[in-house]
């Protein structure tokens, strides 16, 4: 009979979990012993049960094996391998080349160092600058609209506060800019009439005042 594949998840039943732990622990200790004997390897194994009980195996001395592991870890951390050094050198070289390319692109966009550029490269630079200007203008327009909306909201708040204060003091609310424009009278030609005297008058200012008084009477 073929055994089904065991799912790698925690066993919920406590009894089954303890039985599985005992079987697999004994099998792991047996494999560690066989590895040390067959391959003449220095093996150390430490197991803690769910209840905290310690199980261990060492082909020689567990403490000596742990100290050897610590020394090996410290030595490897202090001395990078040749492969790691080569990888770091490659990364540094790539970063230096990227910085040089970015600096050259920056100078070109500022209009510097264009002598070595071909006609096609100059056209590409011009198109790139035009796209940048279009993006900047679009963003500028959006910011203007947002600021206008904010000012309109502030105007509404101030108008409401003005009305509240005038009502509290028994006064008529002050007219806003929009209301002043709406109350302007219009002449026969459809234009605003600002009450400006346009009749031609020749003479001293005193004579002009007397004439105005006679017209009113």
Keywords:
217 residues; 6 helices; two-stranded antiparallel sheet; mainly alpha; flat
Termini separation: 129 Å
Summarize the helix and strand pattern as letters.
Answer: HEEHHHHEEH
Low-confidence stretches: 180-187
**Structural class by secondary-structure content:** mainly alpha
Number of helices: 6
Strand proportion: 5-15%
Q: Which term fits the overall shape?
A: flat
Strand order of the largest sheet: 1-2
For the largest beta-sheet, the strand count, sense and barrel status come to: 2 strands, antiparallel
Structural Rg: 46 Å
Please bin the fraction of helical residues.
Answer: 55-70%
Task: Name the average pLDDT.
Answer: 80
Strands, count = 4
Would you spell out the secondary-structure blueprint of this structure?
Layout: H1 14-39, E1 44-48, E2 54-58, H2 62-78, H3 82-109, H4 119-169, H5 177-182, E3 185-186, E4 192-193, H6 205-216
Antiparallel strand pairs: 1-2, 3-4
């Amino acid at each position: 009979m073929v055994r089904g594949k065991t799912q790698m998840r925690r066993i919920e039943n406590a009894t089954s979990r303890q039985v599985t732990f005992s079987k697999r622990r004994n099998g792991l200790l047996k494999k560690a012993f066989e590895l040390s004997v067959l391959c003449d390897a220095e093996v150390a194994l430490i197991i803690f049960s769910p209840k905290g009980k310690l199980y261990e195996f060492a082909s020689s001395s567990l403490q000596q094996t742990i100290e050897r592991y610590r020394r090996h870890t410290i030595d490897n951390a202090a001395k990078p391998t040749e492969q790691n050094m080569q990888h770091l050198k490659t990364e540094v070289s790539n970063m230096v080349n990227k910085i040089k390319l970015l600096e050259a692109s920056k100078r070109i966009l500022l209009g510097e160092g264009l002598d070595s550029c071909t006609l096609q490269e100059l056209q590409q630079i011009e198109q790139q600058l035009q796209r940048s200007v279009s993006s900047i203008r679009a963003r500028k327009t959006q910011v203007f609209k947002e600021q206008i909306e904010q000012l309109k909201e502030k105007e509404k708040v101030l108008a409401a506060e003005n009305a509240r204060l005038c009502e509290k003091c028994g006064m008529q609310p002050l007219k806003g800019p929009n209301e002043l424009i709406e109350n302007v009278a219009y002449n026969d030609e459809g234009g605003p009439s600002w009450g400006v005297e346009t009749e031609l008058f020749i003479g001293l200012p005193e004579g002009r005042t007397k004439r105005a008084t006679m017209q009113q009477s």
